[in-house]
């Protein structure tokens, strides 16, 4: 749901001498990363990268247009063209004097602890609430097949942070607290932010925890943590040199081919700990903490039942979480009004969604201090998400002329166990269960939903094909 991109802006530190606000000034060598929260085809309609992210940062830092052109080594006409494109996209706005200000959130390291922070009282309240339901969570955890081989402590980051607070929870936070749609911009509905990072620091901006998912054959190779890309080596960040030195692959082996082999090894040892696996690859996987000493896969392997189980845990915790956030609403709205972002034109929902990421990160760290979460030794938890059975891959169901592929859904979307397709009455009920789903297309169905899929909700539409299972 959240995508990140790290970009470096050279020489941003000289902005202090150019009349920028002192409290916002970045370090001498500043690095920024753009982040977005989106679903499906909703994404920026203009290319976002080092140049346009820099423009948003320069707007926030009050750099005059002629100096922006010099910094970016672009003609003034090109800076103006890009500025107009960002304004038209809805990521910036024009002031009456013609200057531009970002309407996406731009946060420097100096600003974050002053304006985008979570008060310890609300962090402590959330951690206390998780401590209260922890026995129930642990009992439910013991029933999930994809975690049966993993001690709870080893999966606690995934279950208590990603499950109760982030990936399995954030839709409920949007629906239950923000209660408005994501902002409509030129490319669709999405949130966008630009964060300053610490150069050379393997920890991501502001320490925020996040997910990464990468298709490897029929499996999704996933990471959760805040050192996904610059921290210790993991299966996503493998370099060609690692393939030979760590895993014994022949020179010239491609990273993607090696990832497929290694994920295959993990799945094989998950199914059968005694299955034969290349010794060099097994040693490499053990060095990353992915194989246990007994030879069995040491990371979660999630299927539909596990996804549904984590969703059920998140649903059970949601009322407590939303009550804590509501109790803090007036203080948070005052914090927003006193920040520079309100004056720039950043909306409260956009401010809140990024505040929420700082908040759940602080809650995660509080849980680690309380020893309720045990952090992975390399700062990142790896897990696999398996696909549906091979017999389901090439089947589709067509509604209103739109093909719906089984992998777009999970058990919680109306699937019967062992079924390729959702129970259609249940599916229709889920699709229309709230005006939020109707209006946004529900980020729970990211690949399914697009501008045409609202036809699914038209009363006259009928199922035209439903293959036998």
The spatial strand order of the largest sheet comes to 1-2-8-5
Q: Low-confidence segments, ≥5 residues, pLDDT <50?
A: 1-20, 388-469
Strand content: 5-15%
The computed structural class is alpha+beta
Q: Let me know the number of strands.
A: 15
Largest sheet: 4 strands, mixed
What is the strand and helix layout of this fold?
Blueprint: E1 2-8, E2 31-37, H1 50-60, H2 65-72, H3 76-89, E3 92-94, E4 100-102, E5 105-107, H4 112-115, H5 120-141, H6 152-163, H7 170-178, E6 184-185, E7 188-189, E8 191-197, E9 210-216, E10 219-225, H8 240-245, H9 255-271, H10 279-287, E11 301-302, H11 304-327, H12 329-337, H13 340-344, H14 348-369, E12 380-386, E13 397-399, E14 402-404, H15 424-431, H16 435-440, E15 463-465
Parallel strand pairs: 5-8, 11-12
Antiparallel strand pairs: 1-2, 2-8, 3-4, 6-7, 9-10, 10-12, 13-14, 13-15
Helix pairs in contact: 2-3, 5-11, 5-14, 7-11
Would you mind describing this structure in some detail?
The protein is of the alpha+beta class and about 475 residues long. The protein is built from 16 helices and 15 strands. It has helices at about 50-60, 65-70, 75-90, 110-115, 120-140, 150-165, 170-180, 240-245, 255-270, 280-285, 305-325, 330-335, 340-345, 350-370, 425-430, 435-440; strands at about 1-10, 30-35, 90-95, 100, 105, 185, 190, 190-195, 210-215, 220-225, 300, 380-385, 395-400, 400-405, 465. A 4-stranded mixed sheet has the order 1-2-8-5. It has a 4-stranded mixed sheet with strand order 9-10-12-11. Strands 14-13-15 form a 3-stranded antiparallel sheet, with no helix packed on it. A hairpin with a 2-residue loop joins strand 9 (about 210-215) and strand 10. The longest helix has 24 residues, at about 305-325. It is globular, with a radius of gyration of 23 Å. The two termini are about 30 Å apart. Residues about 1-20 and about 390-469 have low confidence and may be disordered.
